[in-house]
Structures are given as structure tokens and as C-alpha cells.
Amino acid sequence: MHLVIIGNGITGVTCALTVRRLQPAARITLVSGESIHHYSRTALMYVYMGHLRYQDTKPYGDWFWDENRLGLVHATATALNTSEKLLTLDNGTTLAYDQLLLATGSESKRYGWPGQDLAGVQGLYSLPDLEAMARDTHGIGRGVVVGGGLIGVELAEMLHTRGIEPVVLVRDARYWGAVLPPEEANLVDRQFHENHVPVRYGTELREILGDGRGRVRAVVTTAGEEIECQWVGLATGVTPNLGLAKTSEVETDKGILVDAFLRTSVPGVFAAGDCAQHRQPGAGEVPIEQLWYTGRMQGETVAHTICGQATAYRRGIWFNSAKFFNLEYQTYGQAPSEPTPGLSSFYWEHASARAALRVYFQAEAPHAVMGFNALGLRLRHAVCEQWIREQASVGTVLAHLGAANFDPEFARQHEKAIVADFNRQFPQLAVTLKQRKGLRALLREAQEGFSSPR
Ligand SMILES: Cc1cc2nc3c(=O)[nH]c(=O)nc-3n(C[C@H](O)[C@H](O)[C@H](O)COP(=O)(O)OP(=O)(O)OC[C@H]3O[C@@H](n4cnc5c(N)ncnc54)[C@H](O)[C@@H]3O)c2cc1C
């Protein structure tokens, strides 16, 4: 069996390593137009900020691929002929496959703004983007970042660490309004404030102005403001990279359409990770998942199917994490940004505005816990998942909060205050001393038994 994988991101590489384990004799070839070796895309910002060198972002040494008999081809696949099972590469060669995985990732979205093709206007997705950003922001005074999501805040931090003033345009009335409730968004806003990053909420990009020589000079916002700048970062989302799939009869919509086994419409061709669109996502799941950890899960799942062990993809309980300047963020399960019928939430915030916890739970008995948001404190993935899966009551969770907390010092310091706050806000559900009794044993179990995903 010759498995060809297009894309050496987390999805493609996880699939390759899993197939190597399941079928030691398989021939496996990874094709990537971006880089010969796999690197960690989520670490791009740290290279710009000087915290890591490019070689530090490679999880495996360059010897690893030969050692594991994984063929590497540094080229872009420009055409796919599924009836002949043949790929055309931009280096003038062709590549035949028995089974094919499309793990082509995403590309930055552009909305047709006037001036979006000027020099100094870009998204941040790939190594060439990083190089362009390093080149075009060298020695400049101000950059405008368009978009109030995770990449927007990363771009702002990146510019800030190089002494460049970022101005951030956020469409919503608050930061990441579609995901964060107002209280959590306020904490992120404080990070912007403390780092002297001006943010224009409720404001979109209308137009990018050039300097007459093809370079960006300013942006005009929907509020009519003209902001002078020498660079514009577009962080308004990504879209599946369909370039190769579109040259073939593989069925696409917004992404490459796949069934529960990550099979495309063409036998022997699979798609996974950012580029895949699930025809029938599970309840509460989205059809296109553009996350590092879901890419890894899909890569592992599809490898089993490729090796003849048909396995349906199940994402399980939602999880995500990020960092907003100095504020770490984790979310688990159902954590809507707006009040939702049938769901209550308890919110605690430390007086420093550097730590907060929100616990979502059923409004009606048995008040099962449905989700968490944590800012500035680290929760244990396995514990939170278990509580959600087993529908633990909010009382049980609050009584045993220490079991979920990574930072024992923090737990000792703040747990009492969190429980007291909960008892004040929800006297009818007040956590009793008796409920808290088993805490020590649980803490011990957590420290011994659970391991972190990060
Ligand atoms: C700056 C940044 C920060 C991020 N931070 C986080 C985070 O904190 N947490 C999180 O969960 N997610 C994060 N993400 C998203 C996460 O990185 C992606 O979801 C994940 O990398 C997708 O993996 P993938 O393997 O599916 O695709 P990719 O990593 O995009 O890999 C696809 C590869 O295929 C190559 N390719 C495409 N077409 C062809 C072709 N025709 N021929 C050859 N090669 C081709 C591409 O060049 C690319 O190298 C971040 C993304 C970015 C850009």
C-alpha cells in the first residue's frame, strides 16, 4: 500500500505516524509545498517575538523521517486525477498513490476590501506569511490588526513586543463577542489596556489606502476614521484550502465533504483536519473544525480507517485553549457567550482581574455541569471532561474544585472564596462542608492519576 498525504501539518503527520504504527510495511509519502519538515504552526508567533528559532518549532529532529521510513516531498500538488490515482506536482513530476489523504489545511480569508492586495497587507497562516510580516514590519511605527479573535490578539502581541503600536479593529461590541461572555471579554480588554493597545470596538475595515507606490499608507474604518499605518494584519478568519480538491471530482462545499469515517466522495481518497467538512456533524458540533487538537484527533482516526480498521470520528467534549497576552484561557463543553435557556452559570473573578472561572450548569435539577471557562488559572483537562461526561452536579464540582486545578497554591488560596461566592449567588444550591469532605482524597487521586494534554 502506498499512502500519499498532501500536507505535513498536525493532521497529515499524525496520520502518517499512526499508519506507520498500524502497518509497519506501508509505504508512506508526505507532500508539502510549505516546508520539507513538519513544524508547529501554533508556535509561529513565538518565532516572530524571538522566543523560539524556527528549528525549535520542529517537534521531530530532521533524522526522524528517514528513521521511520516516511518519504518527504517538498512540492505543491497542482492536479489530482482520481481515476488514474495520480498527482501532478509543481516540480514537474507525478506521484501515484493507492490511498490518498487530503490534509491541506486552511488559508486566510479576505473579503474583497479595496486595497487588500497592497504590499504590507496580509494574514498570518504560513511560514511565507511569517517571513513577509518580519520583512514588512521592520522599523515601522504602527500596524492595524483587523479582527477580534485569537489570531487578532496574537498579531497585536507580536507587534507590541517589537515596539510597534498595534491598533485593533473589532467588529463586535466586545472582544470575541461570539465566544466570550461580557465578563471574560472585559478581562481580555484589560490586557489590551495594560499593554497600551488601542482597540476600536464595533468597528470594521472599510478600505485600505495606498501610498501611490503600491504600499499601504492608512486604513479607513466603518466609523469613518482614517488611521495611518505601515502594515495591516487581516485576522478575520480562515477558510478550508480547496485548491487541489477543486482540480478533481472530489465533492466540496465550504470544505472537502467527508462522512463520519473521513471518507470523501471518491473511494480511496480521505480528507481530515482544517480542510474537511463533515456532512453530518454530531449534535452541538460544527461541520468544519479548524483547531490543532481536532486535526490531531482526525489524523489519528482516519489512519485507522485507511488501515482497514474503519473508525468513525468522534470529537467528544469540546475543548479549546489560548493566551491573550499574559492571560491563559481554557474552555470545556458548552460555554455560550450569551444567556441560554435551560443553562445557568456561576462566575467568579479574582479582585486582580487576572483570574476568573465560569461554571455552566443545568438550570433545573440535577444541575449537571455542562461547561467551563477558565482565565488565568489552569484546569485539568481529564477532570473537567469527566465531570461533564458523568453529568456531575454543580455542587459536587464546586465541592471538589481542587481536583481540577493544576495550581495547588492557587487552589489553596482561592477555593474557599470561590465556594463562598457560589453559595452567595446560589443559596438554594449551597455547597456544604459534608460535600467538601472527600476533597483531600480526590486531590490525591487527581495528582496521581490525571495527566495534562498540554
Ligand atoms: C498563527 C496561528 C495560531 C494558531 N493557534 C492555535 C491554537 O492556539 N490552538 C488551536 O487549536 N489551533 C490554533 N491554530 C489553528 C491550527 O494551527 C490549525 O487548526 C492546524 O494547524 C490545522 O492543521 P492541518 O494539518 O489540518 O493543516 P495545516 O497545518 O494548514 O497543514 C496543511 C499543509 O498542507 C500544505 N498544502 C496545502 N495544499 C497543498 C498542496 N496542494 N500541495 C502540497 N502541500 C499543500 C499547506 O501548505 C500546509 O503546510 C493556529 C493557527 C495559526 C495560523
Automatic annotation (TrEMBL):
Residue ranges of coiled coil: none
Stored SUPFAM superfamilies: FAD/NAD(P)-binding domain
Keywords: FAD, Flavoprotein
Highest taxon above the source species: Bacteria
Protein name per its UniProtKB record: FAD/NAD(P)-binding domain-containing protein
Pfam families associated with the record: Pyr_redox_2
Taxonomic source organism: Hymenobacter glaciei
Record family assignment: Belongs to the FAD-dependent oxidoreductase family.
Cofactor: FAD
Domain FAD/NAD(P)-binding: 2-298
InterPro entries: FAD-bd_OxRdtase (IPR050260), FAD/NAD-bd_sf (IPR036188), FAD/NAD-binding_dom (IPR023753)
